[in-house]
Amino acid sequence: MIEEYIANLQKNNKSPKTIISYRNDIHIFLDDLHIHPDQFVTATDVRKWIISLLNPLEGKPLAITTINRRLNSLRSFYSWAQKSNRLPHNPMEEIPDLKSADEDQEKIMWLTEEEFEDLLHRVRKTPVKSRGVDPEEKYRRDRAIIYLLTYAGLRVDELSNLKLTDLDLELRRIRILGKGWKLRTVPMSNTLWQELYDWLIFRAEMANKKLHVEESPYVFYSQRSAKFTVRGIQSMIESYSLPKKKLTPHMFRHTFCKWMLKATNNDIEKVRRLAGHSNISTTARYLKDSYSDLADAVEAMPKF
What we know:
Layout: H1 2-11, H2 16-33, H3 43-54, H4 64-83, H5 103-107, H6 113-125, H7 135-152, H8 156-160, E1 167-168, E2 173-177, E3 183-187, H9 190-207, H10 211-214, H11 230-238, H12 249-263, H13 268-275, H14 280-284, H15 291-299
Antiparallel strand pairs: 1-2, 2-3
Helix pairs in contact: 2-4, 7-9, 7-12, 12-13
């Protein structure tokens, strides 16, 4: 029966890698339960199997992502078996994916202060690979973008669309057109003000040398365009990634929210307004401590 199922996957143009994965996962399940493919299986059988994966008699427990992948393989197999009348019952209908208590937190990645400082060092030291690119111009632009993302919490499209008229250096505030065409105003910290001031002075010098910069209404431009596109910003940020930590523009927005909660003593409403969140529950996600925060808390316990 499994070979019939595999043939069906091939007929539906599933990739060879996917087919191999499904086949292996199904065989592991059947071998663990000591049953044949055409034997009756209940949801209880599946739940007991999941428990055995989480609490094995020998070795380490499987990662939740691996277990969920196997469950997905079983869903596909038993759904096909029921629809094709090979089996009268689909035991996977009552089996949801496993969820980790830290699952939402794992999706929210931010930078520590040490990581941010290290990033600034890499921005300065990373050599320019493209021909015709002024290293000093690229460094100043990239640095200003990183500061703006981190200290104002802009979304990448908000940064791409940010115009010179949106910056008020005198009143030290930034006007941002966010999701749903909602306007918000974010104050500039002294740190951000200085970075933007330096960038605008340098940008004015570039405007005297490059026509597309002179004609651009946007704060940030690319080598050949008056506007630095979303994809261009994403590629620039990713170029500074470390082997074990990929950087994305949204990671800096997460960093802004996390750092602001710490700076405001967990004042969720202030951070919600600054970040432009419509729902305060979105902001509340950042209240959860990272694993390193928890480790530091445990280490801080009295020692005897």
